[in-house]
Amino acid sequence: MTSPTVPPRREFLAGLTATAALGAWPAHAQLPVLNASSPATDAAYWSAVKSLYQVNADLVNLENGYWGVMTESVKATYLAKSEMINRDNSIYARTQFGREADAGRRQLAAALGVAPEEIAFTRGATEALQLLISGFNKLKPGDTVLHCDLDYDSMQYAMNWLQDRRGVKSVKFNIPEPATRSAVLQSYDQALRANPGTRLLLLTHVSHRTGLVMPVAEIAAMAKARGAEVILDAAHSWGQMDFKATDFGVDFIGFNLHKWIGAPLGVGCLYIAKHRLADIDRAYGDEDWPASDIRSRVHTGTYNFAAFLTLPTALSVHQAIGPQAKAQRLRYLRDRWVSRVREVPQLEILTPDEPGMSAGITSFRFAGKTSAADNNALVTRLKDQYGIFAVRRGGVAKGQCIRISPALYNDERDMDKLAAALRDIARG
After folding, report:
1. What is the band of 28 on the pLDDT scale with cuts at 50, 70, 90?
2. Percent with pLDDT over 90 in the chain
3. Going by DSSP bridges, is the β-strand pair 229-234/144-148 parallel, antiparallel, or unpaired?
4. How far apart are CA 97 and CA 307, in angstroms?
5. C-alpha dihedral over 54, 55, 58, 61, to 10 degrees?
């Protein structure tokens, strides 16, 4: 049986459907003023944020990296837009959608700190990054493309596809453990030195496997100094962290908007710096838009109109909660459980406490427990014995692990419950 966290002020929430149709949500009317001196631990504020969600409380869900739960206001918008699209169908799609989508694009661009003509909607980061990788036209036979073990599987496949289709050499290297800042930078430096023909580097901002945050600006500068371009996977970073698309000196980025921004499933975007547009081919020779328009780099067919029309509400909620406050809260929840198990014998924490190297996500494994079977068994034990839901992640060079990804509806009790469970398991 589902035991939801029920938002207060039912009359307020009951009226959200009406405001949803306008893409507006007066979040400031619901949330108290955040205590600026202790933003990550302001109990009244984060309790109010938690009340914006309605979630299954049968388990403590610490697997929020798959996609983000919509707030009730975002859900109301999505339902209202779905009803409208179903009612008006092509009449709306052919007469009004373009104008409203452009408004959402402008709002998104402002939040990312770029020009609207530098972004195009996609169905997620995977689609965005596949289009950027496959469309990158500055490669020639014999060049090297470089990626690492912590990059997303589909992106690694795309880099290998370049080898098959473009005659380049696809090279993979491994991120060391423990993954300190200096060790990570050294591993990229060594990989670039060992492969002087590298012309394209795939770089993941926040690893979906371990939660490791890469020092993107430093690595990007390192790559460019050696003649390599960078495509950045920001699927897990924007919304979990607070930054602008132009902060890292990277001209090609893929974003997810249904993870840490909280839009409905199927919403993402790609960014191409205006002066680099010609370096990415039009998607499958698209001619619906001129070659000078970034939207010619994406062709998804018919949109899920309602999902894209909900994005302005999701962005409004994101801004109302506070991008920096979100980042601080998620990092605090991560630190809360990690600090309580850091010294547990045999427990390996796969992100360091070093500033800038972790956000909200962190993975762990028990020493010697590196197989899928080992970690699946632990996932099951956490669920059945302790009421905690997590997920196994593979692909890490030194062995599989379990990912913990808290959301804004999680609180200190959830993280303490996880820490107590891990200590209990460690005792045998």
Report:
1. very low
2. 92
3. unpaired
4. 12
5. -150
Task: Show Cβ contacts of residue 361 under 8 Å, excluding neighbours closer than 6 positions.
Answer: 65, 206, 207, 208, 210, 211, 236, 240, 334, 351, 403, 404, 405
Is 325-426 a domain of CATH 3.90.1150.10? yes
**Interval 383-397: pLDDT, tens:** 999 999 999 999 999
Q: Where are the alpha helices (DSSP H) in 323-364?
A: 323-341
Counting Cα atoms < 13 Å in the Cβ hemisphere of 336 gives 22
Cβ-contact 71, 53 below 8 angstroms? yes
Neighbours of 259 (CB within 10 A): 26
Place of tokens 């997620």: 124
User: Which of the following CATH numbers is that of domain 95-314: 3.40.640.10, 3.40.50.620, 3.40.1190.20, 3.40.50.300?
Assistant: 3.40.640.10
Which are the contacts of 344, defined by CB distance < 8 A and separation ≥ 6? Answer: 422, 423, 426
Q: What is the DSSP string of 279-321?
A: GB--GGG--SS-TTSGGGG---SS--HHHHHHHHHHHHHHHHH
pTM of the model: 0.93
- Tokens representing 426 are 């460690």
403, 64 in Cβ contact below 8 A? Answer: no
Residue 413's Cβ-count burial label (10 Å; 0-12, 13-18, 19+) is: exposed
Residue 18 to residue 13: CA distance in whole angstroms: 10
Which residues in 190-215 are b (16+ Cβ under 10 Å) and which e?
ebbeebeebbbbbbbbbbbbbbbbbb
Is the pLDDT confidence value at 1 over 80? no
Looking at residues 30-36, what average pLDDT do you find? Answer: 92
322, 324, 311: which is closest to 108 by C-alpha?
311
CB 75 within 8 A of CB 13: no
| Ranges in the chain annotated CATH 3.40.640.10 | 95-314
The residues near 416 (Cβ < 8 Å, ≥ 6 apart) are 336, 337, 340
Going 266 to 271 to 276 to 277, the CA torsion angle's sign is: positive
